[in-house]
Amino acid sequence: MVTKLPVQIFTCLLLACVAVPVSAESVVRSGETVSVAADEVVTGDFYTAASVINISGTVTEDIVAAGGKVTLNGVAEQDVLLLAGAVDIHGVVNEDVRVIAGEVVLAEPIAGDVFVFGGKLEVLSSATIGGDLLFFGGEAKVEGDVAGDIFGYAGELRVDALVGGDVSVTADMLVLGDRANVAGSVLYTSPQLVIRSQNAAVAGELVRTEPVVPAASSAVQAVVLPVLILLFTALAWFLLARRSFARVTELALRSVSRSVILGVIVLIGVPFVASVLMASVIGAQVGLVLLMLYLLVLLLGAAMIVPIAGQLLQVAFIPSNQTFSLLTLLLGAVAVGVLALLPVIGLFILVGLLLVGVGATSDVISKGVRR
Question: Model confidence over 213-235: pLDDT tens digits?
Fold first, then answer.
């Protein structure tokens, strides 16, 4: 059960944070390993979650997958959305690709745009990108041609291919290799000058902007106080009511889908019901009590973001120690702080964790009332 928690969480966040409708023609598969054979054709959207995912056949519409290792050797007729530890795309994609992963390898033609948020990206020389390439992460090596623009952020970016548009990036190090041929301009923000091969060609301008390093990061300061509030709220709950805390945490990690659905219902439905009750003389007091309970559940659900994130990190990086402790809360606080600093992805993940926390808290309270 514990080893499957990251996959379940990732799947839940993927479906909760990205508006991808599930139609009647969709195909959903899950398990330890999910495979689509080379001679198999999946008609409709394909949703899957597993530790290992291998897609060698053809999918006629979108692919949405979450897992530890995802390999696409077949054909994706439409968009591909992947959330994994490692992703290898050795098949043709006829529309856009969006990936959140630790390591990503692209080896075949992709007709549309490519968005990658991850630790490392390799676009091999056998790959081509028909649209733009957006990368936010650590290291990126682009050896396959890009028809559009390249932009984003990278610790180290190496361009060694034909680029049909501009290269507009922020990077600690930018390298233009022997095969680099940029039809537009290269606009980069970096603490050091570009490393440019003698054979590299840039048709437009080559402009460097010195990065602005503030004396103190206002963004970090703005995040610290809310994270500390969540941490101490979770810590107080853990120390004063450890039994209920453990029940909520266990339920949040065990029944992710149920918690998310219940969290959405509580966040949207309870204020509506409370406002209707408070509009009447008879139900005003009940509506007020319901609203106060709603605020309490919201606070406790928000506090659960920290232990849920900490438990996931502990399972992922310290598998030998899966006992919940103060270390778990500290890991969770650090994770929440980092997520809060990420512009878009971090917000989506935090909202997903909030839904899980609110849903699990509401579930435990409702079960306690029924008893």
Answer: 654 456 666 778 888 888 888 88
